Amino acid sequence: MSGFDKVVTSYEQAMQGLEDDMTVIAGGFGLCGIPEGLIAQIKKQGVKGLTIVSNNCGVDGFGLGILLEDKQIKKMVSSYVGENALFEKQLLNGELEVELTPQGTLAEKMRAGGAGIPAFYTATGYGTPVGEGKEVKEFNGRPYILEESITGDFAIIKAWKADRYGNCVYRHTAQNFNPMAATAGKITVVEVEEIVEPGELAPTQIHTPGIYVDRVIKGTFEKRIERKVLAKEDR
Amino acid sequence: MALSRDQIAMRVAREFQDGNYVNLGIGIPTLAANYVPEGIEVMLQSENGLLGMGRYPSEAEVDADMINAGKETVTAITGASIFNSAESFAMIRGGHVDFTVLGAFEVDVNGNIASWMIPGKLVKGMGGAMDLVAGAKNIIVTMTHADKHGNSKLLPACTLPLTGVNCITQIITDLAVLEVADGAFHLKERAPGVSVEEIKEKTAGKLVVEGDIPEMKL
Q: Do the Cβ atoms of B89 and A177 come within 8 Å?
């Protein structure tokens, strides 16, 4: 890893510097577009007290769900966490804290965090439990609540392809939260299916410019499907 | 007769106009995609980042990178676009999506909706529902008129924690089509064979009934 060459060859290098009590922002929607190897490395390193910012918390035994097995997560910031029995148990035991955040607000918190905007007003959540205790301001006669942005010590990202400069493209709906998460980490680590030569990705088609990316590692992915639903004639 | 889930979806689909961008929630709303009237083209938005959602895939088309907001495998239509979550919610919050259809536990006469949390039960999260009700131009709530114990879900004031305030204008239940305005539910249509009396009985919030109420066309 030197200069603009962001490629690392081991997961230890990829997650070097991750310590107890840090905040990690993770891309992914359900099990789609998640950095499987980076999550496995976090489990292997055994760091505890993590705050994980991610739309979901995986499922039992896969995705971010594996970080619950050794109680590495102190707090989850998510919009939906309903797919996970161990999560439920730790939440009810008081071993785990959850900050439920509307999905669009969560995406915008990451985007704003990466863009140097500390907070923003949104109508989402006004008058609901999400708005409780938050500043309210009216614009054009409509009330909005003030939401603070999010940054992380680490951001862990799954991309389809990257070059050694860290320029990334995502595949289909595996894009989801990954581009915003990538902007919001002090150290942003991208796990990819393929590392390509600079120039192979058309400059106009880059989703995440390399400036946001600190480390790139080539991974292998199981790509587990959460809900396989087929067209009627194929069922 | 109260409408079936599919019949509610059929009635919902009659609201769509040619050229509408529509976000359909999980459950009955999703079924509405099956009943888009002939000659009308709508484009479905899935909030995980897909505009132009298509049908479910064949076995050969299944792709782990291609899912909908319900985390189900899905396809994209010709002319679809795929984007990140912030972009997706910019479309929603920014009022670019014409119709949102979603389910609810309760709606009240002021257009408040409760759909995500029952105190005492485990809370799984609101997903994108709060953003959707805060942003869409037109929101249709689909639900049964009363719960299985016969308690009305159309209330003077919601009792459960809210998903959004003053945002619901139209409700399609198994018994009726209603509009919400001026602190009351306004009965517009009734399900075939369902009497105005029955709807009155099962509507706890203020109900305005003006003139003859026609039966729904499905």
A: no
Shortest Cα–Cα distance, B215 to chain A (Å): 32
Q: Given an 8 Å threshold on Cβ–Cβ distance, is A30 in contact with B71? A: yes
Structure-block tokens of residue A11? 């997961």
- Each residue's pLDDT, cut to its tens digit, for chain A (235 residues) gives 568 999 999 999 999 999 999 999 999 999 999 999 999 999 999 999 999 999 999 999 999 999 999 999 999 999 999 788 999 899 989 999 999 999 999 999 999 999 999 999 999 999 999 999 999 999 999 999 999 999 999 999 999 999 999 999 999 999 999 999 999 999 999 999 999 999 999 999 999 999 999 999 999 999 999 999 999 888 8
Q: Is B47 among the residues known to form the active site?
A: yes
Instruction: Sketch out chain B's domains with CATH numbers.
Output: 5-208 (3.40.1080.10)
Q: Hey, are the CB atoms on A229 and B74 less than 8 Å from each other?
A: yes
Write the secondary structure of B27-68 as one string of H (helix), E (strand) and C (coil). Answer: CHHHHHHHHCCCCCCEEEEECCCEEEECCCCCHHHCCCCCEC
